Amino acid sequence: QVDVAAMARLFGYVDVTDTGFIVAVLSIAFNPLFWNVVARWEHKTRVLSRVFGSPHAACYCLGAVILVLNCVRSHCFTEAMKSQPKLEGWDCHWTYYSGLAISAVGTLFVISSFLALGFTGTFLGDYFGILMEEKVTSFPFNILDNPMYWGSTAIYLGWSLM
Q1: Where are the domains positioned within the chain?
Q2: CA 15, CA 4: separation in Å to the nearest integer?
Q3: Which of 59, 73, 102, 126 is deepest in the core (most CB within 10 A)?
Q4: What is the pTM for the complete model shown?
Q5: Are the C-beta atoms of residues 21 and 109 closer than 8 Å to each other?
């Protein structure tokens, strides 16, 4: 037999039937699926590069779409967090400031990753044939293998705590 008591307690704190929660989960799952499918399609067909006249223009367009989708995802996440039950013991200044600190560290990793990679390095330029001269090994890549993913995760964790 499986002890489901832990899951039952967890679902007491998360309303999985809330429409905002469902929309947030779908947007979180959709974004990477979308940009990976589009980037792989571009890599195989070069259709976007032909339509936009150059790989750079196509990459910038996809990057802009990704940024818009990220704003939508962040909005959906925020709305879902507002409607979810709160852990009463965690609703205090200590938790808020811990979340703020975790979000700040995440933001540092995301922004420094973007600055190290540039726009096309961040937004799938390699799928458009836009390659970097050499592997980036400066901060934050000398600390983490995937600082943008870890940073984004930290931002959302911190946001959740706040």
Answers
A1: 4-161
A2: 17
A3: 59
A4: 0.86
A5: no
